[in-house]
Known about the structure:
Blueprint: H1 2-9, H2 13-23, E1 27-33, H3 36-52, E2 61-65, E3 72-73, E4 79-83, H4 84-89, H5 93-108, H6 111-118, H7 121-134, E5 145-151, H8 154-161, H9 165-182, H10 187-196, H11 209-213, H12 218-230, H13 239-256, H14 259-264, H15 272-285, H16 289-302, H17 307-319, H18 323-336, H19 341-353, H20 357-370, H21 375-387, H22 391-404, H23 408-421, H24 427-446
Amino acid sequence: xxxxxxxxxxxxxxxxxxxxxxxxxxxxxxxxxxxxxxxxxxxxxxxxxxxxxxxxxxxxxxxxxxxxxxxxxxxxxxxxxxxxxxxxxxxxxxxxxxxxxxxxxxxxxxxxxxxxxxxxxxxxxxxxxxxxxxxxxxxxxxxxxxxxxxxxxxxxxxxxxxxxxxxxxxxxxxxxxxxxxxxxxxxxxxxxxxxxxxxxxxxxxxxxxxxxxxxxxxxxxxxxxxxxxxxxxxxxxxxxxxxxxxxxxxxxxxxxxxxxxxxxxxxxxxxxxxxxxxxxxxxxxxxxxxxxxxxxxxxxxxxxxxxxxxxxxxxxxxxxxxxxxxxxxxxxxxxxxxxxxxxxxxxxxxxxxxxxxxxxxxxxxxxxxxxxxxxxxxxxxxxxxxxxxxxxxxxxxxxxxxxxxxxxxxxxxxxxxxxxxxxxxxxxxxxxxxxxxxxxxxxxxxx
Length: 447
């Protein structure tokens, strides 16, 4: 998510003021579902498509928006967003890869860049509010979801996300080439189009967002059908993608659907370890710690080097307030995946809960350096600083967390406190000053 990374690494007055323009808009509540295992799985599914498109899988993230409607979109060059509702309706990895290929084509073909160039500066900032706020996650829920504010005027948001029929045709053609080059069945994209077929006859308020932002046409569908018929396969190297797709979807639906629903459908993915992951999530949501840990341990017996299973074990133990055991579980996950920011954040949270403040601060600082998007990590880091007696740093991190979630009035209060506590002219002092300036500019705009 590039905009948070820019905020993190290039936190200049100019970038903060740009944030103000974008975030100081009427906001609506949106949720990103953040989970280390799910995001890793999405990366595995996306990698062959992104490589075929000439994009870096290390740079372009696939992120899940907690929304039951059917939609997928891009708002910048470093992230593709997929609604949980669309993911849940997909049957196989090829369908998800078809959507990723299409959205990647919008990036590669310059549709987003051209749109930004054509918009005026103020309007650009308003339209980009969705990107800047969506990239900055606020406090997370017990299920690993992270709340975010999309601070943009709805009209600007719709205008920014809406593609023309020409752009859609161009993206389709490019997507089909990417899929063919990657050895992925082109029928997956066609299957997605069939989910939306017939919706253009509905009134706008009854259409899924994808149809409103990605106009369909009979010609588009016919072109995809012709290409899919001409290049039916053979598909190459799909086994790994299918596994990770089923793992992502299985865990997502276990979190989103009632535990009873999940328990009735444990084996539908066809993978024994995915069944156990789903079972563990369902038991954990029912507060049955013993059965949840037992299911995770059975999965670990099959995949002992899987960091995301150790991460899940740590989550279950944290929910049960078994902090020492959670530290051990997260510690093993960190050993196996030291560059995963979400896992590092979980480890820091467990250490903090166990009273190991100095170690917690180190883990949370590492998490922040890797991934600045996790608002719950920022909250924990501010607590770690406060318990270490570093009140200025605690106020700074709190100010940045509020700024990134669009709460600039609250951000200003904490930034002002940080400016008074931190050594003048230091790096943290300058960061606090930037947030304070942004908050003051936002306050003037509200008057």
